[in-house]
């Protein structure tokens, strides 16, 4: 088949049109690629310029390193420091972090209200511990202002000018209470006391996967720094009665000065409501003290406050009539001031773990040993303490 000249010319025209279309598509692809490249280079240049400006700003605002020289001891001996004043005698000193634990509904808020009134009106706390009048910041973030007023009317504080407060009405999700707010108040009122109810309402993120050490760093280190900076005492409330896990271990010893664990006694099932049976146990664990104070409390429903019905008794001296097996355990623990865990005792004595657990429980029940977290400490008499020093 022979194509005519007209057919050949038509095919050539179609070929030229296809080639022109391909050339146009290639040019458009190249234009898009060039545009993207130019935009990427512009972003990179802008990023470099921003980082350079940031470095220059940091260099301009960063103070020059200060050369510090060690101080001679003779100079320190000549200095005179103000004494640490107890806000609540034998309980809460200035520049301290104190934690109040307890299960929900055990009466922690009433306990904190009672502490606030005692300090504001210079009354003995729980009728036992003398107080010094201080200005108080009460972060009552669990209550509205209306609810807070109702609680304050019941307390009848004689010196309301000594109490400042935040309530849930003062904060919201977009503007939570922060450490900066508390720091600003402490700057104006150094050496006073801050009550945090509840501590969880502060904007802190704590992961369940964190170790106890990581949680303590996140939760309590800022409080310790705040207390040291302004010489204030801080009492923070937490929903927990697991005193040992969060306080008793060595990781917490540098952050928490005192811990108050409030455990309400259970009412037997089927028993009628009886205010005289509304009792609780208050365990006060003080830093660097192996023996806690344990008070028996009763809640006065009319006055809405806690009353001590049985004071903490001094721990008895370990008698010389312990059985040889119990005496062996006691002697071992007494020679380890840092405390021993149940596993440590079992390993060092090379005895069955279950047997050791039973014997250690007997010593704890008789107040020969005391437990703090996972560690056990010997209850020493004053003669032993003096001899060790």
Could you please describe the fold and organization of this structure?
With 389 residues, the protein is α/β, with parallel strands linked by helices. The protein folds into two domains: 86-310, P-loop containing nucleotide triphosphate hydrolases (Rossmann fold, 3-Layer(aba) Sandwich), CATH 3.40.50.300; 324-388, Arc Repressor Mutant, subunit A, CATH 1.10.10.10. The protein has helices at residues 5-61, 73-78, 108-120, 145-155, 179-188, 212-219, 221-230, 243-248, 324-334, 342-349, 353-365, 382-388; strands at residues 86-88, 92-93, 96-102, 136-140, 163-167, 193-197, 233-239, 258-264, 279-286, 293-300, 305-310, 340-341, 369-372, 375-378. The strands form three sheets. The protein has a nine-stranded mixed β-sheet with strand order 5-4-6-7-3-8-9-10-11, with helices on both faces. Strand 9 (279-286) and strand 10 (293-300) form a beta hairpin. The radius of gyration is 34 Å and the shape is elongated. 26% of the residues are buried.
Mean pLDDT: 81
Question: What spatial order of strands do you see in the largest sheet?
Answer: 5-4-6-7-3-8-9-10-11
Q: How many DSSP E strands? A: 14
What name does CATH use for the topology of the largest domain?
A: Rossmann fold
CATH class of the largest domain: Alpha Beta
Q: Which ranges are low-confidence, i.e. pLDDT below 50, for 5 or more consecutive residues?
A: 241-251, 381-389
Q: For the record, what is the CATH homologous superfamily label of the largest domain?
A: P-loop containing nucleotide triphosphate hydrolases
**Any guess at the CATH architecture of the largest domain?**
3-Layer(aba) Sandwich
Please write the string of helix (H) and strand (E) elements.
HHEEEHEHEHEHHEHEEEEHEHHEEH
The tally of helices reads 12
Structural class: alpha/beta
What is the 3D form?
elongated
Overall radius of gyration:
34 Å
| Share of residues in strands | 15-25%
């Amino acid at each position: 088949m022979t194509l005519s000249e007209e057919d050949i010319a038509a095919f050539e025209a179609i070929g030229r049109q296809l080639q022109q279309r391909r050339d146009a598509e290639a040019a458009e692809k190249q234009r898009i690629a060039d545009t993207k490249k130019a935009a990427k280079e512009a972003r990179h240049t802008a990023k470099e310029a921003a980082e350079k400006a940031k470095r220059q700003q940091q260099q301009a605002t960063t103070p020059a390193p200060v050369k510090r020289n060690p101080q001679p001891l003779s100079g320190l001996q000549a200095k005179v420091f103000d004494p640490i004043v107890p806000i609540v005698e034998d309980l809460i000193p200035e520049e301290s972090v104190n934690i109040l634990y307890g299960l929900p509904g055990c009466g922690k808020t009433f306990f904190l209200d009672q502490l606030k009134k005692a300090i504001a009106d210079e009354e003995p706390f729980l009728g036992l511990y003398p107080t010094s009048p201080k200005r108080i910041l009460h972060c009552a973030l669990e209550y509205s202002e209306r609810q807070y007023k109702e609680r304050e009317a019941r307390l009848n504080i004689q010196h309301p000018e000594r109490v400042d407060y935040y309530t849930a009405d003062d904060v919201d999700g977009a503007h939570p209470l922060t450490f900066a707010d508390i720091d600003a108040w402490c700057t104006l009122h150094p050496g006073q006391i801050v009550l945090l109810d509840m501590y969880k309402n502060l904007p802190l993120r704590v992961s369940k996967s964190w170790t106890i050490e990581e949680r303590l760093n996140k939760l309590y280190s800022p409080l310790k720094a705040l207390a040291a900076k302004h010489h204030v005492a801080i009492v923070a409330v937490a929903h927990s009665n697991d005193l040992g896990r969060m306080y008793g271990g060595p990781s917490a010893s540098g952050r928490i000065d005192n811990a108050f664990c409030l455990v309400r006694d259970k009412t037997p099932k089927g028993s009628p409501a009886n205010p005289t049976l509304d009792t609780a146990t208050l365990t006060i664990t003080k830093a660097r003290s192996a023996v806690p104070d344990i008070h028996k409390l009763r809640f006065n429903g009319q006055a809405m406050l806690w009353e001590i019905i049985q004071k903490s008794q001094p721990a008895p001296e370990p008698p010389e009539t312990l059985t040889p097996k119990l005496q062996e355990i006691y002697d071992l623990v007494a020679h380890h001031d840092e405390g021993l865990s149940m596993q440590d005792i079992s390993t060092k004595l090379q005895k069955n773990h279950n047997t050791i657990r039973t014997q250690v429980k007997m010593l704890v029940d008789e107040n020969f040993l005391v437990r703090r977290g996972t560690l056990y400490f010997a209850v020493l008499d004053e003669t032993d303490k003096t001899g060790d020093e």
